[in-house]
Each structure stands twice: as C-alpha cells, then as structure tokens.
Task: structure prediction
Amino acid sequence: MRQSERSSPGAHDISVEVLITEVSFCALDLETTGLSSLSRIVEVGAVRFKLGEEGEQLQMLVDPGCAIPTGASRVHGITDEMVRGAPPARQALERLAEFSRGCVLIAHNARYDSSIVSTELLRAGMQVPPAHVLCTIKASKRLLPRMPNYRLQTVAEALEIFPEGYHRALSDAVAARMIFERAVTCHPGWRDTTLGYYIEHCTTGVLGAGIATEVPLPDELEEVGRALGEAIEFEACALITYRSGARPQRTMEVRPLSFFCVRGNHYLDAACSDGTTRSFRLDRITRVIFEGV
Result:
C-alpha cells in the first residue's frame, strides 16, 4: 500500500517537558461496526481543548463501506441509512488529522481506539506515527481507585458528569475530556506537572502498535500472496475461495486493494461485488484464481 504524506491524527513531536497547562489535547471517541480491531468506523467525535478552556468540537458520521451489524446498531443507534452519503473513512481521518493537529490524543479505552484508528489509517494509505494516546480509564483508576468497573458511564456518573447520552461519539468524547480534566486538576500542584508524567502514568494505547504493511509473508502464504499481489498491481478482480470459522467455504469475486498485518495475522483488504469493502485473513484463503490482464 502506498502511504500518503498527509499526517495522521495526534501529535508525536511535543516535548514531554512542557507543562500540562500549555498542552493542547484532543479527546476522541469512535463508534464502529463491532468490537475487533478490524471494525470500521461509523462515527467520529472529538473535542480539542486546553485544561480550563472551553474547546472546540467535531462530530461526523462515516460510511464504513459495509453493512452495520444489527448488534452494533442496537448499541449506538447508527444505521446504514444514517451513514449513506457520509464521507468514507479516509476523508473523515483527514478531517480529524487537521482538527487534532498539534494535540495529544485522549480516549477512554485508548488501546481499542488506537487499534481502530491505526488500521483505518493503513487502509486509507495514511501515515501511522507511533504517537501515545492517553487513556482516561487509567487516569480514572488513579482518581477513583475503588470503582466496581471503569466503563465510561460508570466513571462519568460517579464524578457527576452527565453528557447528552452515551454511545454516540461526540457525547462520549465530551465525557472523556471531562474525566481527564477532573483527574488532572484534583491534585494540588497540578499546574507544575509536565506532560511526561501523564504519558508515563496514563498511556495504554499507541498508534500503529502491532500493525504494519511491510511484513514479509510466511512461506505457506507466498503462493496466495503472489497471485493477490498481481491483482493489486493490475487493479483487477480475482476469484478467492474463503473459509470463515465453521461456515462452509465459498468462492467470491473481489478486487484486492492492499495487504496489512495486525498482531501477526496477515490480511487482504478487498472490494466486494456488493459494493462493500472487507478484510480477509490470508491463511483462510484456500485458493486464488487470477490469470492477469
């Protein structure tokens, strides 16, 4: 996959010695098609702010390029009809990158949001710098060490933070911002604390961690990878036979787009004949038919 020169979300060159009062933050939340790191984004919410200042907000629906599962819609209320005509992930990420430029990212479950953003950046051909993402779950544990759980709603209600609803990206980003701000400002002398302290104590997610595009395929995947690579080069379609769990194998026509690797598993991103885009594990592709153009 060719990578764009455009920067991806978050700042990775801010000095850890800067005082926390001088740092611009961007609290981020995503609604997605599922819970795995390969899920697609359906909504982005973000709040750019400095501690003690009002800040700016960003909210946008995103066309994931595939159907939104009923279970996911039941959680966040976003349907296929709502995202029809919305910008695709690449445009949403470009807008988010501009909005969060110069900011340190914050998310309530930083490990999950980092993996989703990183994978979507790779699909979009954008750079993935190894930027830290501060986690408000970890910040909350320092602020409220005896909570029954650290779900966003549980922590927010314990702190008497009441955004307009939950499980929508902007309201959850607002709640994450308020939790982080409360966790920082409750300690005496917080104004003299540096960013480095919070990177050390509140980081669980790093953009790009465990995700790559330039990873050699193992020997057993070379034949499949070679055929799919030729299809990518010619921007042509291929027939693949795919097995998924206990389901029977099925053969389908796809247009291969790119390869990427997530935590040791190799994937093909491909456009399907129904207009959707899907990710296929290479070790589950049992046959490829591509005869060139």
